[in-house]
User: What shape does this take?
Amino acid sequence: MFNDEYNFHVDTLPMAHKLDEVSTKVRHTNEAVVVMESAVIASEHEAAAKITNKLDVGFFNVVMSQIAQKVANERAQSAALAMELMQQQKALQNLQTRMTNDYNMISARYGKLFASLNTELKNRITELDKPLMEYCNQHVKKLDNRIYGLVSNVPVYQSETLTASQSIAAAHIKANAQQLIEAAAHYITSDNEQRTKSQDIQMDAVEQEVYYVPVVIDEENTETMQGVMSVKNNPTLQSQLSDRAYQQLTKGVSDSMPSLQWHDDPAKVKQIQQNFLAMVENANMPKRMKDIMLRISNSSFATL
Assistant: This one.
């Protein structure tokens, strides 16, 4: 049997030194990494700040350039509009001046025309009044003299000549009365002639003409309403009359409805039927409509 002994001595000190060196280097490496990381982060922050500043400055520059461009466009448009407004103002001022001159010229022309018309009318009125004034100047004095001459004088004579004086006075009064009758007849004749001339000259006396227009009145008989009359709208009649005349017509007919009563008058109904048949016969419409209207006309009629 072998009895061998082995003794091994392992020295770990070099390895520990190496590990200390490695640990030191790793620590330095970590510090370098931390320093590098800090430098990288700082550089990134600086770069980000620079980029942000550049972006802000660029954005503001772009916005300012756009605003400046819009301001320039608006200023150019406003200047163009201002020039156009100035031109329109000058055109309006020229038009106002021309219209003022035309108005003054037309007003002066019509002023002269109306002045001449007033003068002409004054002359015509004077000519119309001239016969009356001449008549007054010529005949009033004569009538006054005749009135003064008709005053009877009381003759005072002797009894021998009283009969002859009375006969002479009676003859004188009879002659004056005859002249007075002739003057009155002449005055009446002249007055009638003057009245006729005045009526021919006056334009106020206008004879009023009466026109009859067709109006349709409908009477409704239902369970709730009995004998209710209403005026039907007539577009054809409304187009021929003014709005005021048409409203007055319908209002007058509506106001007179309570007093309207149906009457059986054979003579008037026969005349209405004859007129209606003649109107249907002469109307320009289809035969079917004429037949329906003739069939309606064969029913009973009553008049208001």
Notes: The mean pLDDT is 77.
